[in-house]
Amino acid sequence: MYNAAAPAGGTAAPAPLLSVVIPIYNEQEALPLTVERLRPILDALDVSYEVVGIDDGSTDATPAIMHKIRQDWPQLRIVRFARNSGHQAALTAGIHRAFGQYVVSIDADLQDPPEKIPEMLALAREQNLDIVYGVRGDRNTDTFFKRRTAGGYYWLMRKLVGKKMPAHAGDFRLLSRAAVNALKSLPEHQPVYRLLVPWLGFSSGEVVYDREERVAGSTKYPLSKMIRLALDSITNFSASPLRLATWLGAVSFVICFGLAVYTAIEYAAGATVPGWSSLFIGMLFIGGVQLICMGLLGEYVGRIYSAAQARPAYFVGYDSADELPSAATVPAAHSAR
Ligand code: UDP
Ligand code: MG
User: Which residues of the chain form beta strands (DSSP E)?
Assistant: First the structure.
């Protein structure tokens, strides 16, 4: 593991104060607008900074645009994945590779206002905080569906992680070097940072912001990815769905026992019990319960399986930081996992 204070060996420039990590996937429309708004803000901060753009295997003009921007913005560092690996994997690469004393993660579509970055940094430095959450004050710009699903998601996550988790804190946040190192030490295979960071329990503050509309392009989070994130979140933090099997089993046992007693009484009273349809419904019910329980079990077994395989969550094809003349002599000591 590399030493954050000397990112590229003893000979290179000292670590920047601030790293801004941006996961980017097919953002050819949004990226130029994001850079246009972000750069003056960072320049005005008057601190050393780097912007780590994680190109999550984009298939549009994003890579070319990034290289063009970098030509007159040397603080932009380009890390390119060999293929699309997902938002959380991109965040992992960014957090693992950032050199800064503070690391801010922000989306590429300007839904998280970059104007809040100086506020986050000031708060962290003044109050000596390890985490500053960007908390959404208003979701009016999100679709009704997104608001509802997000509401349900955060309600469930607070039940799992506890009250430490601020409601509606997404992946726009600041982490100190201490928090970054703590995250790097975790063996998580499929990290969900919006849960892991509150779980760390480090000193934290909040900056409230209004979620803006995506500046251009369309969402890269289809329903399938949202469901995956939700499943990862639940299985990452709780085994209680497994206990559901026990409860469902107990409930169906009680129902069956009740029915058996009823049948015996009716039989003793000389009444014949018409039974085919109720028998069939009962069978379907038990079958359904069993399949649900097996499916739940499968979610966990599948995750244990992929954790046992321990395949990396992403492959970095290119990192512009490796091209620096001073870094060329240094072994690639900061490759993630
Ligand atoms: N993203 C990514 N890889 C993916 C999907 C998304 O790096 O497979 C990035 C995307 O470019 C954006 C951020 O993750 O910077 C959030 O995605 P998006 O804005 O599409 O999600 P939404 O805001 O609609 O939930
Ligand atoms: Mg977005």
Answer: 18-24, 49-55, 76-81, 102-105, 131-138, 169-176, 204-210, 316-319
